[in-house]
Amino acid sequence: MHDRTHTSKPVIGETPPAFKRSGRDLRIDACRGIALWWIFLDHVPNNIGSWLTLRNYGFSDAAEVFMFISGVTCALAYGSARQREGWSGTIARSVRRGWDIYAAFLLLTLACTILVYLAGPDHLADESNTRILFEHPGATLAHAAILQYRPVNTDVLPIFVIYHVLFTPLLWLLLRAPNVTLGFSLSLYALVHLFGWSVPAWPDNVWFFNPLAWQLLIVLGAWCAIEGERFRPWVTSRTALILAALYLVFSLIIALSWSIKPLEPLVPRTLTNLLFPPNKSNLSPLRLLHFMALAIVTLWFVPPDWRGLSTPAMRCARCCGENSLPIYCLGVLLALASHLPLLSELLAMQILLSLAGILVMIVVATLLNSISIKRAQQPTEQVASRIGLP
Can you tell me where the transmembrane regions are (predicted)? Predict the structure, then answer.
């Protein structure tokens, strides 16, 4: 992702414009970092800080943002790798990244188990979905190894293992027939809602994020990176903006009526019963449309050269976004620790915990960036010392 080099030889036909750009779109890392903060705040139980996230103001939340941006970054990273290294190099990169996420998932499962054990299984076993691990460790670990068992809030990682391993054939299809590929993805999404298709899980046979439904956001993000420039005039038109704004206002009124009792009379009960709750496991169409409306409004008001991206807050968000895997795992552990009664009962403690958690995420991300910079500088310093340069 750091090095989007363009060669004179296109992948096939015309090289996607996104692969020709030099530099890094700062909005991607900033949005992903903010999404990581929101995910952490939403996972803290009864947290007043969740009112700073999307969850209470519409049908979608940070999960849609995180999935879509992952599709964009995968297309940019693996598309550039395809130009430099060919398909074999792309396959190696995608499998290696999938392995990294798989290893992180297993380590995170182990870390969650240790944390629950130290806190006392009676306190956190049910909230963390680890009681079955303590009761049947052998079977549970075996199902975790094949991605069928997941402690609470770790559901995203197994999905990303699958998506990264399969991203190379998806990229091959998108580069040759992007609109047809998106059409197949939409068809699969529709079939999930028509027939209730899912992937086997254990022990309750439920994936909190159904991979067959949520794949649409990954494909849509990759499609936007490859083919989006041709459709940008439609997405950024005034008509699209007006429709998106109207839908956001509609969803805002509905969502607030679910959370604030004095606002309940504003929405007919029939409509409330019809729309509540928007299914998250299968990515309800209400959630999908809400995210798309948010994306359209963001494209209108946050250009690539927006000055706000250089503010301290956005620099911290970008830093977290650049280290999304370790920061996500850290956020899961911090949110799990917040389930302890001592940490989540008082309002002041919730505020302090929210601020401290985000601060810890920023500090760890900054340290990881510093380590990466030092590692990148070492080969240059070694070469300089060999030829006698200071």
Answer: 62-81, 101-120, 156-175, 182-200, 206-226, 238-260, 284-302, 323-341, 347-368
- By percentage, how much of the chain surpasses pLDDT 90? 67
Instruction: Note the pTM of the prediction, 2 decimals.
Output: 0.89
Rg from Cα positions in the chain: 22
- What's the distance, CA 319 to chain centroid? 15
The pLDDT of residue 265: 81
CB-CB contact of 33 with 39 (8 Å): no
| Exposure letters 151-171 (e unless 16+ CB within 10 A, then b) | bbbbbbbbbbbbbbbebbebb
- The ranges of the chain with pLDDT < 50 are 1-13, 380-390
Burial of 136 (0-12, 13-18, 19+ CB in 10 A): middle
Cα dist from 276 to 93, 245, 271, whole Å: 41, 21, 8
By the 8 A CB rule, do 276 and 81 touch? no
For tokens 């559901």, name the residue.
155
Per-residue model confidence (pLDDT) at position 22: 57
Q: What are phi and psi of 176, to 5 degrees?
A: -100, -40
Distance CA(297)–CA(299), nearest Å, equals 5
Whether residue 108 contacts residue 129, with contact meaning beta carbons closer than 8 Å, is answered with: no
Q: Where are the alpha helices (DSSP H) in the chain?
A: 17-20, 26-43, 62-119, 121-124, 131-135, 137-145, 156-165, 167-176, 178-195, 211-235, 238-259, 269-275, 285-301, 312-322, 324-337, 341-344, 347-386
pLDDT in the model for residue 236: 85
Long-range contacts of 83-87 (CB under 8 A, 24+ apart): 83/5, 83/6, 83/7, 83/9, 83/11, 83/15, 83/19, 84/5, 84/7, 87/168, 87/172
Query: Is the separation of the CB atoms in 336 and 342 below 8 Å?
Result: no
Task: Give residue 76's identity as a one-letter amino acid code.
Answer: L
pLDDT at 3: 40
Per the omega criterion (within 30 degrees of 0), is the bond before 200 cis?
Answer: no
Are 317 and 85 a contacting pair, CB within 8 Å?
no
